[in-house]
Amino acid sequence: MPAAVAGRLTLPLEVRPVSSRADETAFLRIPAALGGEAAGWSVPLEFDTRRFFDPRRNGVLRDHAAARFLAWRDGRCVGRIAAGRQREAAPDGIGTFGFLALERDPAALAALLRAAGEWLSAQGARRLRGPLSLTINHETGALVEGFGRPGMVRMPRTPEWLPAMLEGAGLVPERDVLACTLTVAEERHRARFAALLARWPGAADLRVRPLDPRRFADEIRLVTALYNDAWADNWGAVSVAEAEAATIARVMRPLLRAGAILFAEWRGEPMGVLSLVPNLDEATEGLGGRLLPFGWWRVARVLGGRGRSARVPMLGTIRRFRHHPVSAMAAGALLDRAIGIAAARRWEAVEVSWILDDNAPMLRTMARLPAPVTGRWRLYGAPLPPRA
Length: 388
Description:
The protein is of the alpha+beta class. Helix content is 32%, strand content 29%. The chain folds into 2 domains: 10-177 and 379-383, Aminopeptidase (3-Layer(aba) Sandwich), CATH 3.40.630; 182-378, Gcn5-related N-acetyltransferase (GNAT) (Aminopeptidase), CATH 3.40.630.30. Strands 3, 4, 5, 6, 7, 8, 9, 10, 11, 12, 13, 14 and 15 form a 13-stranded mixed sheet that branches. Strands 1-2 form a two-stranded antiparallel sheet. A hairpin with a 2-residue loop joins strand 1 (3-5) and strand 2. Helix 5 runs antiparallel to helix 10 (325-345) and helix 6 packs across helix 7 (242-252). The longest helix has 21 residues, at 325-345. It is globular and about 70 Å long.
């Protein structure tokens, strides 16, 4: 018999792993079925999510194990979650949950988190952290500030009620990550930086160059090395392995038609990197996760640079140059070039995201652009019971 709660009947809830083609279809389509962007959820392209969980097409699954679960009530899918864990257990014992989408139902959230946590405990994890789309190198956090803004590529949209529900399920806030948005017509950086560079005695030794497409594989290996060094000391950092880097390269390549990867070199040594990508969410919003019949044309326009906005998902310098004037000048030079590309493309806005909330030097740089904080995402955690 169904249970009575607050004077109404609540049908039994079942959570089970994704194990069939029909389950996979339900997993792919639930964000749109929940109301999509109008209800506060990101709606990724279905083929993109399917590819993410295909070990033949996503190199991150060579180093990470993943499991997917669906919540069902009366034969209807009411929620989804994915759990992830490094195959060689990380010393911090962290397991992650992500790809979260569900009805506004605390019981469904609790059941999904329980299923993910039990699977992670069996894998040897000691702490649950998320929302993370497997690792912190992918989509991160639940939105807590910046609701109602247009979507940005790979920056998740979640409903306003989700943070309180996560805390109600026993998770505690661990860290916030931020997005800062530059309105290109209002930027002050290029003029200020040109004057600063003219007075700096090291100007002749600093060079910014684009990725060389003729040496694409070698250049992606350089991006990976710079990224892993620059972000190694950050909270929650997870190194990008070679197989994952190869997947990222395949995904990035079409984005570079309008976007760019830029390197900063000091006396010939690569020491900084920035990536700039067009905002594909402009093309995919409202498609319900499907490109047919007219989505391909919209995506092609954005990939060709005919959108309105872009994102800088990567900007950093290697640790050896930290607290040295070269690091600050390299970051300034990379931003100078990226803003110039955005202006040439007639993009109206560039979002720099994400930035850890305690990264004071980067936030000061953003304030000078000016690129005020326009979004905040929160990561939550909780201990997991020991493995049986």
